[in-house]
Write a structure and sequence with these properties.
Largest sheet: 7 strands, mixed
Strand order of the largest sheet: 1-7-6-2-5-4-3
CATH superfamily: P-loop containing nucleotide triphosphate hydrolases
Shape: globular
Radius of gyration: 14 Å
Helix content: 10-25%
Strand content: 25-35%
């Protein structure tokens, strides 16, 4: 396995075997995610998306509680960047993403992290990055980055 601080490792796929390992790897990934970029997190329930986000948000300098926005739909954090964490699972239409007013509130540098992006795909900007999360048979989690282009 390559270093989680190297983009090539993420594009070929990085495997973790615990929540702590996932959070540490995601914190390292935070240094690779450009400011003012949307990261879509794809994967089935239990694939590690929220755990990944927790580590990523910590890596962006946020302290305090970092929770899933499953019921609130959106959590906003301020650290080294303004971070918008969206759980689009319960949105009933792609237009519901617009109702969150993220683009009205975002001040550079920011990142938008979207779980269940397929529910709002038409509302995500061109050029967004995608992290695909998968639960492996042996109990690990694989994270694979897909960049635009």
């Amino acid at each position: 396995m390559g270093s989680p601080a190297d983009l090539a490792t993420w594009t070929t796929g990085l495997v973790t075997f615990s929540g702590e390992e996932t959070e540490q790897a995601a914190a390292a990934f935070a240094r690779l995610l450009p400011p003012d970029t949307v990261l879509a997190l794809e994967g089935d329930l239990g694939a590690g998306k929220t755990t990944f986000v927790r580590g990523l948000v910590r890596g962006l300098g946020v302290t305090g509680d970092i929770t899933s926005p499953s019921f609130a739909l959106l959590n906003v954090y301020d650290g080294g960047r303004q971070v918008f964490h969206v759980d689009a699972y319960r949105l009933t239409s792609p237009e519901g993403f617009d109702d969150l007013l993220i683009w009205d509130l975002a001040k550079s540098p920011w990142n938008v992290l979207v779980e269940w992006p397929e529910r709002v795909a038409g509302r995500l900007p061109r050029g967004h990055w995608t992290m695909k999360a998968a639960l492996l048979a042996e109990g690990g989690h694989r994270f694979t980055l897909v960049r635009p282009g």
